[in-house]
Write a structure and sequence with these properties.
175 residues, mainly alpha, Four Helix Bundle (Hemerythrin (Met), subunit A), two-stranded antiparallel ribbon, 2 strands, 60% helix, globular
Length: 175
């Protein structure tokens, strides 16, 4: 299980890096233009993608201890700007992705087999269940990222911008 989740964490890291790099090449106006998606602009979709990562890692911080908390500590200081982003805010978003994605890789790499079953409290579903296994939330984090990178890809397709982020090189598997 650990090998699979480590691969997923590295895949998310590579996917986020690839998508950010593609969107980073656009002008601020292109990034901020409303694209008719739930999150409006590409910038809004990228911010939500990061926001989900930060949210899930916050749940992990609330349930884990020791080294896991140390690894996730840098993510606690990530703030996600709202509204139209300046170039400086956009660059900080890219740096925040690097911090959050590296924390996830380190977290998963340091887990033991038993850690994947560790209960993580949630306040969804009206409190039933009151917690889910860490592995479930790790899976949800990967699915969330893949879903929103797909949305971003669809918008880039409509803009006629090459974005084969899913053609991610597999070098990350060897790290």
């Amino acid at each position: 299980m650990k090998d699979t989740y480590t691969m997923f964490a590295k895949y998310n890291q590579a996917g986020n890096k690839a998508v950010y790099a593609i969107v980073d090449k656009l002008s601020p106006e292109e990034r901020e233009q409303d694209r008719g998606s739930y999150y409006g602009s590409l910038s809004g979709m990228v911010r939500h993608l990061l926001g989900g990562t930060v949210f899930f890692q916050g749940l992990f911080r609330g349930a884990l201890s020791g080294t896991a908390l140390e690894v996730l500590a840098p993510v606690a200081s990530i703030t996600i700007p709202e509204g139209t982003l300046t170039d400086a805010q956009w660059k900080l978003l890219g740096s925040a992705f690097e911090v959050a994605d590296e924390a996830l890789v380190k977290l998963v790499s340091g887990l033991t087999g038993a850690d994947f079953n560790h209960p993580v409290p949630i306040n969804w579903y009206g409190g039933n269940p009151p917690s889910v296994p860490l592995s479930f939330l790790l899976n949800q984090l990967v699915v969330h990222g893949t879903h929103h990178r797909g949305q971003i890809s669809q918008v880039l397709d409509a803009m006629k911008i090459d974005n084969d982020y899913s053609g991610i090189k597999v070098e990350f598997l060897g790290r």
